[in-house]
Amino acid sequence: MAVGGVILLGTILLLLCPSASIAAARNVGARPWAALGLGFAILVTVPVVIVILMVSVIGIPLAIFLIGLYVLIKMAGLLVLSTAVGMRIMRLFGKTCGDTFWPKLGVLVIGVLTVFIIALIPVVGVIALLIAWVIGTGALGLKVHNAYCCAPS
Questions:
Q1: 100-150 confidence digits (pLDDT tens)
Q2: Is residue 135 within 8 Å of 37, Cβ to Cβ?
């Protein structure tokens, strides 16, 4: 059930922004340490900001909004890392991710299945899933940062 939901969410993400999801996945291989650092910063700072907002009465609606956004960002980060894993597996077999929808979806499905199979390993799986969330979220953050910094004025 969870794998199907993640693949469905990934399909929607590929339909809405196909080039952005692949570009964010390429950040995992191109800048892994930057993705890890930014992902860890997001993992730590966003919950702290949510708690601070919850303390003030005025910030409660914003905190509730941030909780939902945080969950969506973490899911998108998992999809980004799954796509990167799928691209790496395809590269091992001498294949590349095509420009059309179906090859990209195939890469996503391979990556999601691989990540979820690794997540089934008792202790290592939980640690691997946490690292996947952190790196994927960081790679997504790097893509957003590059889009804003490098966008033509």
A1: 888 889 999 999 999 999 999 999 999 999 999 999 999 999 988 888 887
A2: no
Cα separation, 77 vs 86, in Å, equals 14
Closest by CA position to 24, among listed 142, 110, 147: 142
For 62-110, the pLDDT digits (tens) are 999 999 999 999 999 999 999 999 999 999 988 877 778 888 899 999 9
The answer to whether 132 touches 115, Cβ cutoff 8 Å, is yes
Contact 113/82 with Cβ under 8 angstroms?
Answer: no
Close Cβ partners of 46 (under 8 Å, ≥ 6 residues apart): 66, 70
The pTM of the full predicted model, rounded to 2 decimals, is 0.88
30, two tokens: 């191109």
Q: How far is CA 41 from CA 70, 74, 108, 132, 134, in A?
A: 13, 13, 26, 14, 9
If we measure between CA atoms, which residue out of 1, 12, 2 comes closest to residue 108? Answer: 12
